[in-house]
Amino acid sequence: xxxxxxxxxxxxxxxxxxxxxxxxxxxxxxxxxxxxxxxxxxxxxxxxxxxxxxxxxxxxxxxxxxxxxxxxxxxxxxxxxxxxxxxxxxxxxxxxxxxxxxxxxxxxxxxxxxxxxxxxxxxxxxxxxxxxxxxxxxxxxxxxxxxxxxxxxxxxxxxxxxxxxxxxxxxxxxxxx
Length: 177
Ligand code: FES
Description:
alpha+beta; Glutaredoxin; 2 domains; 4-stranded mixed β-sheet; 7 helices; 42% helix; binds FE2/S2 (inorganic) cluster
């Protein structure tokens, strides 16, 4: 059943319908997947914010609102979590974001080598942004395209069967822009 459908429980209580995704950006599907996996339960707040952070590189007002609304937690609580944990950042990431999927299927297909190569090329660790603010390197845990492993997202665009060479070429293009 589509998640937008409104069904009834116990005969007359409408079931909560999650809000629409904020944009077409595929990363929102990843975020939504985390919430759906948890049945849009409130206890998924931290895990979902983690997914936003690893997918986008940071949390902004729109994403915090979207998650709070989807999980039906007070906005203040969502902000409380986002500002309490040092892991979360409210600052924008680099101009470009390379997100490498480190889920099981991608790991088996060599995601760890992609990560190592990207870290070496950029001189930063995963979760960081280059000093010039150009490129952020992020990790994700399964972006739902396992059959195309290893998968990376280049500014949100899913690239399957990513090779080390392709990835380094992409980084090069971003660097010389
Ligand atoms: S494990 Fe990478 S897309 Fe599923």
